[in-house]
Amino acid sequence: MNEMALCVKDDFGTWKITYDDALKYHGRRFIAGVAMGFQCLNLAFSELSPGKPVDRAKVRFFSGMDGTGVRDVVEMATRCVSNGRYSVNTEVVEDDTAPETPGTGRFYFEVFYGTRMARLRLKCGLVPDEFAPLALKDGAGAITPEELRRLQEIKENIAVYLVGHDPKEVFEYEVY
To answer: Of all helices (H) and strands (E), which one includes residue 173?
Structure first.
C-alpha cells in the first residue's frame, strides 16, 4: 500500500512528508489537528498543483481555528509559520457553514498557491458532540485524568477517521 505523502520542494530539493513524519514532528496531544492539517494540505496540494511537487515558498495558509496540530503540519510542510505566510483569525471566516471549534473559531482553511486558492471546511458531523466540552475543560485546566483519557481517545478516533478517508470525503472545498 502506498502511504499518503505531501510532496514539497524548495531550492535545495524535493521531499515527501508522510502523516507519520508529521506525528513525529508534533506528537500525539493534538493528533486530530495533525490529521486535519495533513488532509487539508493533501487535498489543497492535489487541486492546486496536480501531479507536481508544491513549491513551499509559494504557499500561504489561513486558518479559522487556533490549533497547534494543524499549525505544526503546515509549518513542517511549507515553513509558512516561520516565514510569515500563516495567519489565524477565529472571528473572520468566509464560510459560516464550517463547523465551530470548541471555544472560538471554525474548522475552515484557505490554502493559497501562487495566484490560486482552495477554501476548505471540515464536513459537519465528523467531530463528536462529546469533544467540545472535554476540550474546553482541558484548555481551562479543569479536566480529570479520566476525562483526559477519554478526550485523547476521541482525538485518536477522529484522526484515524480523517486519515483513513480520501480528503474529498472529509472536506467541502472550492478551488479558485
So the answer is: strand 171-175
pTM: 0.96
DSSP 1: -
Q: Give the containing element (helix H, strand E) for 61.
A: strand 59-63
Closest listed residue to residue 132, CA positions, set 101, 96, 159, 153? 101
Could you list the mean pLDDT of each consecutive 10-residue stretch along the chain, which spans 176 residues?
Answer: 84 97 97 98 98 97 96 98 97 83 93 97 97 96 98 98 98 98
| Residue in the structure block whose three cell numbers are 472529509 | 170
Q: Measuring CA to CA, how many Å separate 14 from each of 5, 17, 56, 156?
A: 12, 10, 10, 30
Instruction: Report d(CA 167, CA 146) in Å as an integer.
Output: 32
DSSP code of residue 100: B
| Residue 18 region by backbone torsions, left for phi larger than 0, else alpha for psi between -120 and 50, else beta | beta
Alpha helices in 3-30 (DSSP H): 19-26
C-alpha–C-alpha distance, residues 104 and 14, integer Å: 36
